[in-house]
Predict the structure.
Amino acid sequence: MPAQQGDPRHPAVPAAPATPATPATPDGLACFNAVPAEVAEELLLSCCHSPRWAERVTAHRPYPTLDALLAAADEAGYDLPAAERQEALAAESSTAPHPDAPPAAQTALRAAHAAYESRFGHAFVISLDGVRPGERLDQVLAGIRSRLANEPEEERVVAADELRRLARARLAHHIGVTLAPDAAPPGATPAPGAAPSPGAAPTPVQASGMRRFGRRR
């Protein structure tokens, strides 16, 4: 994504450097580059439950920048065989509606998820990266209703693309938050009160539910 243009500046004031497309997180990235392979793969499996994808992304460490890591994750996702994409989709679960949502909205979302899963055989996945919290429920409902009209083969393509976007958002979140200098080591038990409350609104990386860290097979 190109950098946004800043406001016009007075000629005597030096122009600020362009904003990078992805915020730099050198400490988190350095941690990801340095942890043992099995730890990196476990973290990656929590982003996309494909052992092949996790192993490939891990094998190409170290990454010089976060953008390089995310590009490698995208490339590995595009190269996944259909069977492994289906395995990754099968590990996803539909996100429950926020308990504070109106009862009618909760009912509508549950019904929409059930209809989608009945038609396509896996949970509805969508990346909500960049969507405002107050708009996420409407975005999910609109996405399900729109994609229910897809033919199965067409929906496989759409779901695979959303899965890649979701994995990318989750990975960026892990590098920037989970592996931040003041965060607990990967796999550690969260401190009391550190986990989000059960009623918290889903974040962009929680557009569909998944384990914090993936299971290894």
In short: The radius of gyration is 19 Å. Residues 127 and 165 are 6 Å apart (CA to CA). Confidence is low (pLDDT under 50) at residues 1-24, 184-207, 210-217.
